[in-house]
Amino acid sequence: KRGRILKIILFGSYAKGGWVDEPFTMKGYRSDFDLLVIVNNRKLCDFTEYWHKAADRLIRDKAIETPVSFIVHSRREVNTYLKEGQYFFSDIRKEGIVLYELDDEPLAEPQKLSPEEQLRSAQGHLEERLSNAHRALETSRFQLSKAREDTKWRKDAAFGMHQSLEQAYSGVLLTLTGYAPPSHNVKFLRSLAEEQDRRLADAFPRDQHRERAWFNTLNEAYVKARYSKHFEISEEALLWLGERTEVLHRLVQLVCEEHIVRLGKRQAEELPL
Fold first, then answer.
1. How far, CA to CA in Å, does 267 sit from each of 54, 84, 241?
2. Phi, psi dihedral angles at 99 (to 5 degrees)
3. What does the alpha-carbon distance between residue 121 and residue 260 come to, in Å, rounded to a whole number?
4. Could you tell me the pLDDT band of residue 17, with boundaries at 50, 70 and 90?
5. Is the pLDDT assigned to residue 27 strictly greater than 70?
6. 67 bridge partner residues
7. 3-class SS letters over the chain
8. Which of 85, 168, 194, 215 could disulfide-pair with 133, CB 3.0 to 4.6 Å?
């Protein structure tokens, strides 16, 4: 009863003015509305407990044509991230559009990490997360090979591939912004990652209904592949998803390494002569 939504802030391409709405082109890309919901108590950030119905409604409501994604954090968390110099939240504070606020208390002033700190953090995130993504994909491929003898292995292969995508998308977000939401929803992570660099959208085009359905099925695999006896996914779908996941890995490597090179140049420019 004491819980409150303090602010709702629109961020990302619709706040900056660089959105894309081209569902009928070759790639079928459409930017999401991205929202940061700030609450007064960290307990209210529990997505499963408090927010899953809202997320489900945003997906199923026929009147909502543009996809809507949101993250939830307490004001204390957001202010801590700002004081730690997290670019993701600094960018929201600078360019986000406040859609609702209960009070006019401003968020903390963002601090800046040194180029050296940014570089060290980015390199660490890329190395760890991309390594995790590669291993998960290799595990998924082994499990898919076993599925030719027993189709139940497809569930394991789907879960492994889901983990590969989750690690890859989280990795690019952490490398570029220092933040990735604690989410297993790879559609959501994909949306946030592609907002950072549109080249990542080349990994999973949206123009074919069948391929969109395969991605949606894989998105459900984190829970259903492990706990639902009704979960099914075809070998054809897994082979295509595996090929596109490998493409994603290469794109993540490219995007992140370019970012790290830029950070390295910035660090060198600030070193004393």
1. 43, 19, 38
2. -95, -25
3. 10
4. confident
5. no
6. none
7. CCCCEEEEEEECHHHHCCCCECCCCCCCCECCEEEEEEECCHHHHCHHHHCHHHHHHHHHCCCCCCCEEEEEEEHHHHHHHHHCCCHHHHHHHHHCEEEEECCCCCCCCCCCCCHHHHHHHHHHHHHHHHHHHHHHHHHHHHHHHHCCCCCCHHHHHHHHHHHHHHHHHHHHHHHHHCCCCCCCCHHHHHHHHHHHCHHHHHHCCCCCHHHHHHHHHHHCHHHHHHHCCCCCCCHHHHHHHHHHHHHHHHHHHHHHHHHHHHHHHHHHHHCCC
8. 168
Place of tokens 């949306």: 191
Task: Give the pLDDT confidence of 58-98 residue by residue, as tens digits.
Answer: 888 989 888 899 999 999 999 999 999 888 999 999 999 99
Q: Encode pLDDT of 142-158 as tens digits.
A: 999 999 899 999 999 99
Contacts (Cβ under 8 Å, ≥6 apart) of 174: 125, 129, 180
Tokens 């790639």 found at: 27
**Single-letter code of the amino acid located at 272:** P
* 223 in Cβ contact with 99 (< 8 Å): no
Task: State how far the Cα of 76 lies from the Cα of 154, in Å rounded to an integer.
Answer: 43
pLDDT of residue 206: 87
